[in-house]
Write a structure and sequence with these properties.
This protein is an alpha+beta fold. Helices cover 42% and strands 18% of the residues. The chain is globular and about 60 Å long.
Length: 351
């Protein structure tokens, strides 16, 4: 498969007033005890290595003795807002184990490791700079996918829950050597994931931008691929950027599909997933329409990228309606309309 890289590092888009009102209406806005900018003022850091001694490209950061207590208390409070709707009784049992910082991501996230002092169990959450693209991606994931996401926003700060699972690149490296039955299930899930991304126009789903959730089943395992990076929601102009099948990092799973799936079975899985997306769109139609109303008023890409994508989707679907789309929001809306109307053109893996 050909490589597929973003044209340039994506800029963050501000949250404009209609989107703020949408977030307030659906309880995504709150008052946070600490802001992203407060964490930038750390006094030192050390590289973070994994259990095998490999650099993770995260840094563990440290704060001054003067700042550390109120920062850690605020982070525990923030975790309670995210997990227990602000029930502060849980804070007594929580402590911050580590604060990590990723310098190469678009949103330059902080990852907070929280430990429950009662049983030493730990969890993570993320603090990032607000980006309208990412918020639209999170909301579309909530409304159109089988996954639920938890996040909160205030001003320039976005907090997100940790999505548990194996990083896609680790999964491909170590978990594909299973029996044929489970290989078929992995390939099937990738087909469905590929379809969800293409409908929602979620881009850049290389292996390290998603996780794989593995659930033991009566026979074998069930696999669910979940995106963890929503920065490239409907931003790029190339159609292939929204199809995970075209990223070379995913070739290990692609090979399973070529080995085990026929074109007819791929079509069946695509049809199943689009039917589920259409059902979710109808069930959440009121909220989805409000979100899309925000998107079509917003600027979340450049005019050149919009022009390129609408033309490539026009060629793909053979539908001239795409040529009338003025922005990325209208293109996403048109994609969803075609799915609901059962006119969305199949994107056969391998083509």
């Amino acid at each position: 498969m050909a490589g597929n890289k973003p044209s340039k590092k994506k800029v963050a888009f501000p949250v404009f007033e209609p989107l703020k009102k949408y977030l307030e209406k659906h309880n995504r806005m709150t008052i946070l005890p600490i802001q992203y900018e407060d964490l930038i003022h750390y006094i030192g850091s050390t590289p973070l290595f994994n259990m095998k001694g490999k650099d993770t490209f995260w840094e563990t950061v440290f704060f001054s003795e003067y700042d550390q207590k109120w920062i850690h208390d605020s982070l525990c409070h923030m975790y309670a807002l995210l997990k227990t709707d602000g029930d502060l009784q849980v804070i007594d049992h929580l402590t911050v184990s580590r604060v990590d910082y990723c310098i190469f991501g678009n949103t330059k996230p902080f990852r907070i490791r929280i430990i429950n002092k009662l049983n030493d169990n730990y969890d993570h959450f993320y603090i990032k700079k607000t980006d309208a693209s990412r918020i639209y991606g999170l909301e579309l994931e909530e409304l159109l996918s089988p996954n639920s996401v938890s996040y909160l926003v205030e001003k320039n700060t976005l907090i997100e829950e940790h999505i548990a699972g194996l990083p896609g690149d680790d999964f491909i490296s170590h978990n594909l050597d299973v029996d044929a039955f489970n290989q078929i299930r992995i390939a099937k899930e990738f087909v469905k994931f590929n379809e969800r991304c293409f409908v929602q126009l979620l881009g850049d789903m290389r292996a390290y931008n998603y996780i794989v959730d593995i659930t033991p089943d009566i026979e074998g395992f069930q696999y669910r691929i979940r995106p963890i990076d929503f920065d490239q929601q409907s931003y790029e102009g190339r159609k292939q950027f929204y199809l995970p099948q075209y990223f070379k990092e995913n070739n290990g799973i692609l090979r399973l599909g070529f080995r085990h799936l026929t074109p007819d079975s791929v079509k069946q899985y695509q049809h199943e997933e689009r039917s589920l997306i259409a059902r979710r769109a109808k069930i959440s139609s009121e909220r989805l329409n409000l979100l899309l109303d925000c998107m079509v008023q917003d600027v979340i890409s450049t005019s050149a990228k919009v022009e390129q994508l609408r033309y490539e989707l026009y060629e793909h679907h053979h539908n001239a309606v795409y040529l009338q789309c003025r922005n990325m929001g209208e293109i996403v809306m048109q994609n969803i309309k075609l799915v609901v109307q059962k006119e969305f053109t199949q994107s056969i893996i391998g083509n």
